[in-house]
Structures are given as C-alpha cells and as structure tokens.
Amino acid sequence: MRLIPSFTVFLLLLFFTAYASAQDTLKITFGSCNNQDKPQHLWDDILSDVPDIWVWLGDNIYGEGQDAEGLRRLYLRQKQHPDYEKLLATAFITGIWDDHDYGVNDGGKHFLYKRESQKEFLDFLAVSANDHRRTQKGIYTVHWLDQKSGIKVRLILLDTRYFRDDAIRTKDGYTPNEKGSILGKEQWSWLEKELKENKAEITLFASGIQVIPAEHRFEKWSNFPNERKKLFNLIRKYKVAHPIILSGDRHIAEISRIEWKRHTILEVTSSSLTHSYGTNTFEPNAYRVGKLINVDNYGLLQVWKENDQVVYKVQLKGEGGVILQEFKE
Q1: Whole-angstrom Cα distance, residue 208 to residue 97?
Q2: In this predicted model, which residue has the larger pLDDT, 3 or 67?
Q3: pTM for the full model?
Q4: What does the alpha-carbon distance between residue 126 and residue 134 come to, in Å, rounded to a whole number?
Q5: Which strands form 92-96's sheet, in the order they lie side by side?
Q6: Looking at the DSSP assignment, which residues form a beta bridge with residue 53?
Q7: ∠26-31-32 over CA atoms, to 5°?
C-alpha cells in the first residue's frame, strides 16, 4: 500500500475545505443608479466576486421621458455592455425599477405609459412569456433563491412606483402623506399572503426607495408613514426571520437597523453604480450603522451555515473590490 505524505494530505484537505466552503456559500450582489451614458467601472469587480445572483434595485437605466422604443434602445445598450454580458452569462439576474427606468422622475400611479414601461422592463430581464408579471399590474414578485447554501432564502421584489399615490412635495422636500399608499391594495394583499406562508430562514425585501431612514428630504417610505408602519408591522406579525431590506435610489450607500417591537430589521442601501453623490459627506440618519458612503458602490450579501446556524455577511464594496463597510450576523 502506498502512503500519501502528510503534507500532501494537508493540502488536499485544505483544497476540499475551501471548495466545499465556496459551494456552500450563496452570493447575492446588488446595486442601483446605473447611467448608461457614464463609465460602468464596477462590473469587473462584481464579476470577481463570482455571484450567484445579481439584483437590480432601480434606476437601472436613465430613460425618463422616453417612449417604449426609447426605453428598449437604452435597455439594449445596457445588455450589450461587455462586462454586463459576462454577468448575464454566469448569474441569475432579477430586480425592480425606480423612477428613472419607470419612465418619469418621482413618478407614481398616474404615469400614463406604465404598462408600456413594464413590458420593456420585463423584456430587459428576459422574463418568460408565461410569468405572472406579464399579465398582472406591476412588477412585484418573489423568488426562492439558489439552495446550495442549505438555507431557505427568499427574495421579495416590491414595486414602489406602479401603485404609489401622489407624494406631497414642498420646496424643502416632502410633507407626509398620511392617507396615501405606496404598494396599493392588490400588492399589499399579495405581500401579506406571501409573509403569512413564508418559511424562509432569511427574507430579503427589495425596494427602489429607502424604507428605514426617515430624516432626509428625498423620496422614502416615511413620506407615507402609515405604509412604512404597515410593512414593519407585517414583518413583526409573521415573525419574519432575518428580514433584510435592499434599497437604492440615493446615490450613497449605508446600512440602517431598526428595532420594531423587539424585532430587528436591517436595511442595506447600495447606490450608485456610476455616479455617486460625492459631496454628500453628512446626512442625518438615526438608524445608520457605521458610516455614510459617498463613492460608487455595490453590495455583496453572503449566506452560509456555521454549526447548523444561519450566518450572513453584508459588504458594501467600491472600485477594485475594496470593502467600504461590512456587517456580519
């Protein structure tokens, strides 16, 4: 019998441990605010993370004022970006929209061409002809994500444009709309049903606008305070395990956390892929964990198990793959 040298055994164990770890970790990347006319310099870094999933968080192109043909042309330009083409070939792509790809700045339910925008958006994501989003109003949906981690991860994609009532705008921002809705009656009914039946160990919510932050003067869920409370109450009511909100829109990145009736909710905002708000060096957010990030960025969420316990790590990353902030739980 031929014996294998102990050092060789050590190397083999190291290799298989690393291989198993790589196979058992689910990698989800995400980002927003991607102007097709600006340099897109983060795709190679995203590709280097070898993600299983990419989630668009809105403003995936800048096409407000465009008709359907114009949106189609801009989406095609994005799909033909060489590095994005590589991501299309290796990862599952999904996502939501925000106002600039919806078709009108700060737009809501009164946008006349929202059905045309919906078709172009779904075509961009290559959504199949028999998918329910092809016939329903709005782009909301849910995905069970790759199960290779052995963890049940659910991604709930929310449409914060198609049904949204008018925001009450002032010269200094917005006045809270106490009676208005963001999601609309149909989407709320759908969402409650999904949460009632939800058995996920980690549930991700994708929102085009921020949910937890309440102090800045831009678009956010707290401009419709009852809608924000309703979402938090549903998460608490159905005891959603490890709820994590993914949001975009703001041209900054940050991590926020709120304790809602003894239930912890985390939000990771990743924005912008191409044109961050570099002069924004301070902005109040009582729920912020860590720092405000004002350079181009994307998000990476990794999920795995340690000793049969669910573990996840969120990183906000910049050019060159540099880690700008990290949160682990």
Answers
A1: 6
A2: 67
A3: 0.93
A4: 11
A5: 92-96, 53-57, 26-31, 298-306, 309-317, 323-328
A6: 28, 92
A7: 155
Return the H-helix or E-strand segment holding 279.
none
pLDDT in tens, 298-324: 999 999 999 989 999 999 999 999 999
pLDDT value of residue 16 = 39
Per the CB < 8 A criterion, the answer to whether 314 and 326 are in contact is: yes
Instruction: Quote the radius of gyration of the chain (alpha carbons, Å).
Output: 20
User: What domains, with CATH codes, occur in the chain?
Assistant: 25-328 (3.60.21.70)
Phi, then psi, of 316 in degrees rounded to 5: -100, 125
Strands 253-260 and 288-293, bridge-based pairing: antiparallel
Q: Can you tell me the distance from the alpha carbon of 102 to that of 314, in angstroms, rounded to the nearest whole number? A: 28
Q: Which of 183, 186, 167, 168 is nearest to 227 (CA)?
A: 183
Which has the closest alpha carbon to 274: 59, 87, 2?
59
| Residue 126 vs residues 119, 147, 162, 218, 249: alpha-carbon distances, Å | 10, 22, 20, 32, 23
Residue 170 corresponds to which tokens in the numbers above?
């002032």
Burial code (b: 16+ CB inside 10 Å, e: under 16) for 96-129 equals: bbbbbbbbbebbbbebebbebbbebbbbbbebee
Query: To which residue do tokens 């019998």 refer?
Result: 1
- The token duo for 279 is 């002069």
The sign of the CA dihedral 64, 68, 73, 76 is positive
Tell me the pLDDT tens digit for each residue of 76-115: 999 999 999 999 999 999 999 999 999 999 999 999 999 9
State both tokens at 320.
């060159």
d(Cα 247, Cα 155) in Å, to the nearest integer? 13
Q: Supply the DSSP symbol for 210.
A: B
Q: Which helix (H) or strand (E) holds 45?
A: helix 43-48
**CA quadruple 59, 60, 61, 64: dihedral, nearest 10:** -30
pLDDT, the chain, mean:
93
